[in-house]
Amino acid sequence: LEGILDEDTAAEGLHTLGCSAPGTEYVYLHLTLPGRELRDINILSGYIHLQKMELSSNKINDLSCVSHMPYLIELNASKNELTTYFSFKPPKNLREVDFSHNQIPKMQDLSAYHSLTKLLLDFNEIEEIQGLEKCHSLSQLGLSHNRLTAIRGLENLPIRILNLSFNQIEEVTGLKSLKALQKVDLSCNKIKSLQGLEEHNLLEVLNLEDNQVAELREIKWIEDLPLLRVLNLLKNPIQEQGDYWLSAIFMLLHITELDLKKVSVEEKVAAVNRQDPPPEVVAAEDHRIQVLWNILQPQRVLD
What is the reported pTM? Predict the structure, then answer.
């Protein structure tokens, strides 16, 4: 029947022949069936040896068959019709899960998923971050295009890559305990202050495009981050200030890219010479002014 997965269709998606987890037989380890208009995949309950399953771009709203896959490592169920997630018995070593582009309204307790390293929940209807307290291996989290208004529930997690873009977040104070952060995307929110991003010594990339940062003094919260190399403040009121570009470069001399533009060595030198010039530059400028002043004085021949 239309939308119901059968053995023949499942066989088309099987690939990667290898040794089973117990090591007793050769089996197919991967299943890839994207864009097949599938609604019912209960037949997969018998495919207990699968380690990687890709079911994106279907019409699936039930993943209970995963309960029978104890060795599953990666699951991609993006672009389906799921309203709940992780509604199955936890596989022993499930590491990467993609539930983006679904209709999930609420996060659930994931305490049983100790091995989870990557969780993508972009393009859903989630209003609050919760249930991740015991995911001590989680290194990548995606929650863009949801309905979040605050950053909570991420305390002391080892997250390195965090995407919270296209939400309604106003403050970033909830990131204080995430000391492993390397890449953070907070674009398209309502953030006015960068307070909460200080002391993230591993942070390399920060995207704050289309927010409400208005004052240059907000950069002070991130000026001491030793590894920060890429910063994006496009579409913020701060760009309306006349000396924004050189002032921002001067406060962040170690960055290599600002607002999607490469920062040149010449611009860094110009920023330093303008904001805090060394003595030789001050002397040269003073000499130039004195010479120009003398030239402009009226000349008189001595008697």
Answer: 0.89
